[in-house]
Structures are given as C-alpha cells and as structure tokens.
Amino acid sequence: MSQNTPQVIDSSEISRLIAHDRQIVVHEGYALDLTTWIDKHPGGRLAILHMVGRDASDEINIYHSTRTLLCMKQYRIGLTQEPWMNLESPIRSPDFYKHLGVCKEECAKLGSKESADISSAVIAPQNKLNRTPCIRRTVEVAPVDCEKQTRLHTSTKSNEVESIDGSVAARERYATGLEQKETSDGLRNNPSIDVATQRAIVLEYRALHQRIKDEGLYTCRFGEYAKESVRYAFLFGLFLYLLHTKWYLTSALALGLFWQQIMFTAHDAAHCGITANFVIDTLIGAFIADFCCGLSIGWWKSSHNVHHLVTNDPTHDPDIQNTPLFSNSPTFMKSVFSTFYNFRFNWDGVADALVPYQKYTYYPVMALARFNLYMLSWLHLVSPRAAQLGAAWWTRPIEIVFMTCYWFLFGYCLVWQKLPTWTTRIAFVLISHMVTMILHVQITLSHWGMPTADLGPAESFAQRQLRTTMDVDCAAWLDFVHGGLQFQAVHHLFPRVPRHNLRQVQGMVREFCEKTEIQYQCYGFVRGNKIVLGRLEEVSNMLKTLVECQKFMAETGESGLH
Questions:
Q1: Can you tell me whether residue 472 is helix, strand or coil?
Q2: In this protein, which residues make up the domain named Cytochrome b5 heme-binding (predicted)?
Q3: Which of 102, 120, 150, 282 has the lowest tally of Cβ within 10 angstroms?
Q4: What is the pLDDT of residues 493-506, one digit of tens each?
C-alpha cells in the first residue's frame, strides 16, 4: 500500500479481521493493527482489548505523549469509513472468556440470553429519544433519597420480581430488570447517544484538549512539589522524633499521615504527570509506592488504566468489583465475571448477609483497606500480568526489590525490632494504617455513588467520564488534604494534566459541560459522602426487596402479585 494512497477498509472487513483475533483499533480515521504490539504495551493488554473495534482517538491522545503518537503511525493498515460506528469490543462478548481459559460451564453462565437481555436494555430506550444536538437544557441531579427509593422498590416489587421463584435464574432476571431501569434513566438524563450529538461532544472535547495544551497546562509546576516535599519531610521527621522519644502510638499517627500525603505524588507519577518521561516518572512512583509505602505501583497502573477506560462498568472496572463486601450496582447480583481478575465474583449467602449492612461497614472497611492493597500488590507481582509489559519489563524486578526493602525496614527493623511489646506493635500497625482511610474514602468517593449503567458503544469518552465521576468541591487552601483527587472528573478527562493545574482546568470543564449539556457533578465532601452512602443503601434496599419476595413466595406459594 502506498503511503500517499492508503486503502480504505470498510467496517465489515475490520469486523472480519477482529473475528480472526486481530487487534484493530481506530485512531484519527486510521485502522491500527496492534496485534504485534499488544504484548509489549507498557499499559497492559487490557487497555488495548477494551478499545478493539472502537474509535479510540480521544483515549489514545490523552494518554500518550506526542512522541508515542508519532510511533503509532507504523501500525496503520488503512483508512476507515467515516463516520465510524463503534463495534462492540470482543472482550465484552461471553465467547471472549474462552480465550482466558474459562471452562465451558462458566461461558454458559454468561451465555447469549444474558447478553441479549443487557443489549435490549441498552438499545431499546435509545430509539425513544429524539434530541437536537447541543441544545442547552438543565438537569437537576439531586442526592439519593434513600427513604424514597425504599418506598419505590417496595411498592413496585410485585412488577419487578414477578418471576422470582427463589432460584439463581430468577435473581438474575430481577437484576436485569433493575439494570434496564438504570439504563433507561441514564439515557433520559444525559445527552442523546445519537451520532450527531456525540460527535458534537467529541469536537468540543478535542477543542478543550487543544486549549489546555495551548495554555501550557500540561507543564508541571515543580515549585509546587518543592512545597510538597517540605510537608512530607516534616511528617516523616515528626514520625522519627516521636519514635525516638518513645511516643510510639503518636508516631504511628505521623507515619500514617506521611503515607497518605506522599501517595498523591505517586498517583501523579503513575500518570506521567511530573516529568512526562515514562522511565523517570515510573521510578519516582515505584520509590514512593513500593519502597516508602509497600504498595505496587505496577498493580495500581494495571488496574487504574482499565478503570479510566471503562469507568464504573461492573464487569470490567476492577475499582468497583468488591462483592461480597460491597455492591454499588444491581449487576453484581448476577454473579459478575471480572475481565480484569479473570475471576467470577459470585453472589452467594455471604453477599446476602453483608450487603444489606454495607452502609454501616463502609468506613470500618476503608480503615483496614490498606491490608488488602498489600495482598493485591504481591499477587500482581507474581502474576503473568506483571511480566506482560514489553518495554517496561524492568519495572517488575525493581518493584520486588523496593517492596522487599519496605517490609525489611517497616516490618522487621521498625515493628519487630524497635517496638517493645506485642500490644504496642499491634496498636502501632493499626493506627498507622487506619489513618490512611482518608485516602481510601477519597478514592471511592468519586465513583461509588455514580451510575454503573452502560449506555452502549456510541457514547463518547467525555460523556461517560463525566456521567460516572463526581468532583469534590472544596476551598483552594484545602487542596493539600485531598491531593488533587477532589478533581476526579477533571482528571478522568485529562489524566496527564499535572495535579497542581487541575483547579484551573476545572473552570474550563464547567464551560465545556454548559456547551454540551453534560451534567458536571460536583458536591461538597459531606454531601459527596452522603451520596455514596445513599447509593450503598439503595442497592441494599434492592436486595431486601428481593429477599422479602422470596420469603413471601416460600411461605405462601403465590407470585406476590396483588
């Protein structure tokens, strides 16, 4: 094929290539064949698999440097037909799990009937909408009224669970009905996902991206990190001083605050938001996360990259896959198979027992969440995923060395050797780790109260990010407490923008939302917590309704309809 006259590849040919396991992704009007690159991708295989068959121009452009974008030209195999209509990525098909080594029985559980149910939930309501692109309208998003939701589910349970007979299949039908309702609500309360509307949103988003680049907001303000370093040094020095004076439990408090604060910079480095150099930022992130905190930056990257691409998708986003402890979506009642963990999150008796109380267990679990992160970090480093990073292969041995050093210094030298008694050791570990719950609440705050419905492949990247992410409103002088994580919606739109520039970008995002009619969801910290707790209670009430109907039928043998 001549470089001057690239051939045009129609969608049927691209579908055929994808069916033959070719990883075709569309970027700025060109079809890229990333089959030979996928195992070398530093961001992991899943980041590419979720984009197969889709126009990933926005996702690719915001995640990669100009130099990397130029390198992508070598993977072009031809032009695509315009306008490109996104295909459903194979990873979203039940058949895909066969390639992950899942047994036939597992595939059968994820069979065509369930897919058809979900597809109908996404497609059917779409035809009822007929909106003009980008006409201003006001959408009021009220906080979740749990009492109202409880009454709603109770009053309508006869219709929602008509076919419930106590079996797993009935529970899945019930969950599918709730999914359909949430999808309909999403289609009704957001800009239409027709081609014209979404294209207008994409053009506005790209114009905003260019404006951010033109105004130099991708340039890191290193002076801010100098200020941050003073705060980190003070907290760490305070920890050492208190430890030396044998104020052990107070020193644990200072150490926990040090961990909480310094991880903000690790987050920046993982997004290449400091030097914009992959190697340097990765080493900064590994030193902070692995050496200073005992957490794998590689695990964080692998899960976080997927989280940014398929935000709040119950099947694909690992950040919300927390059953049986928590469920923020009725989808989890169907026992979700995670494409990230290659593991089925079964809805069982444990979930039935814990989820009704998740509103009350939320904060206690967040206080102990760091222990779970230790486990996930080591599981990642011993998994094949940590070795499938191509040019970034060197990160795995560095992480293992750094995390081993952490446990030698913290576990052996500090906890075992320095602390005098078992009581002190246990109290020190608990206090230092529980202090970091501030960070864990901040991380979950922006997503656990947001919608989890998938509106289909036609929805633009920008609309999905804003629909599924909440910002936290706070005064500028409190930014150091939140560490930039209060700008999660802004960050999801532009993940490589340095943290200290996000407040300035926030004003631009507000203007973008006014033009495109996408709701910008920004609430105070207290109200944001109420929204998360409200969502957890809402899902609990869904489950309680199901259980009540199952008990009624077991006792009476009737359908529950009156």
A1: strand
A2: 6-81
A3: 120
A4: 999 999 999 999 99
